[in-house]
Design brief:
326 residues; Rossmann fold; 3 domains; 4-stranded parallel sheet; binds iron/sulfur cluster
């Protein structure tokens, strides 16, 4: 056994012992560091993990992800202690919008409706009518009355995709994720052209799919080998790929899961530098400290939680929710 494997085993054993002592469950987003993914009880996207949190009977949820995700877990599982190992693990997309900004739009559009992508704070969800993810944004918008003004936030690219797909008029919040905005249309086209046998796998969560969806709409990348897939479906596709190859257009952390699922496949990032530094703040040391010290507990005031919960529940009741489990 090499030194790194020995270090991992010793660290993982300590993490699991501490988790057992605390009656804690460890959830890791797909974009977490490999060690964090490997030690977690569940790996997935933010809403799937929140669903796991809500269904779990563990006393403590350690959410290895970013702040809005831990908040969403708390919204759905208020009776649990939710820990985020690094409080500064934020999200540049979620940070583009505030509750005050939404309320200002509402003042100008008293009958308007607000659709909030899950990458938003609890305070923003609380002043929104319904939540969505990139997988069900079209369906959520289509479920709303045609005679009402609609604000779609915060991802401008995803909002544009929804406008093209539904033909509905939307006011768009001008937000974007700095990690995914970096995956340039030129880079995507060049990689796809250079690898004519590779499939293009796009994960519809966390703002990742937005620019790729626009290219797909414009016919600039081939629809026949492009797949917009949930986490579970992406892993299944990876297994079925055999010795084939796939280009992955999202944050690079997911490639660890795909390689584990199919060691024979060839999985490469469209942009190897598409790395979210907020996700990577959750280091092995930070997770250990979180379990040792109970840091950092995420709280959501009950009035905000109840209103945010209503927006999430409305999304789920619209159906074909993209909430995914692996
Ligand atoms: S990848 Fe982008 S959208 Fe996802 S957490 Fe990081 S900054 Fe936010």
């Amino acid at each position: 056994m090499n030194q790194e494997a020995q270090s991992y085993d010793a660290w993982a054993a300590e993490v699991r012992d501490l988790a057992r002592e605390r009656n804690a469950i460890i959830l890791a987003h797909n974009y977490q560091l490999p060690w964090i993914q490997d030690v977690a009880d569940h790996v997935g996207d933010s809403l799937a993990l929140s669903r796991v949190a809500a269904a779990s009977d563990a006393e403590t949820i350690v959410f290895c992800g970013v702040h809005f995700m831990a908040e969403t877990a708390k919204i759905l599982a208020p009776e649990r202690t939710v820990l985020l190992p690094v409080l500064e693990a934020g999200c540049s997309l979620a940070d583009t919008v505030t509750a005050e900004g939404v309320l200002k739009w509402r003042k100008d559009h008293p009958d308007g409706l607000v659709v909030a992508y899950v990458n938003t704070s609890a305070a923003v969800k609380a002043v929104s009518d319904v939540c969505c993810t990139s997988a069900n944004a079209v369906e959520v918008v289509l479920s709303l009355p045609e005679d009402r003004d609609i604000l779609f936030l915060p991802d401008f690219f995803l909002g544009n995709h929804v406008i093209r797909t539904t033909g509905r008029k939307l006011d768009l919040w001008m937000g974007e994720c700095h990690v995914h905005a970096k995956i340039s249309p030129l880079q995507l086209r060049q990689k796809v052209e250079a690898e004519p046998d590779a499939e293009l796998l796009i994960h519809p969560e966390c703002g990742c799919a937005a620019s790729a969806l626009t290219l797909l709409d414009d016919g600039e990348i081939p629809a026949e080998r492009t797949h917009i897939l949930s986490t579970g479906a992406m892993v299944e596709r990876a297994i079925n790929l055999g010795t084939g190859s796939a280009l992955i257009a999202t944050e690079t952390g997911i490639i660890h899961q795909l390689r584990k699922a199919n060691p024979l496949g060839d999985f490469r990032a469209v942009d190897p530098e598409a790395v979210c530094q907020f996700m990577k703040m959750i280091t092995p040391q930070a997770l250990l400290r979180s379990l040792q010290e109970g840091t950092y507990e995420i709280e959501v005031p009950e009035d905000i939680r109840l209103r945010a919960y209503a927006a999430v529940e409305r999304m789920v009741s619209i159906g074909s929710s993209p909430v995914l489990s692996r």
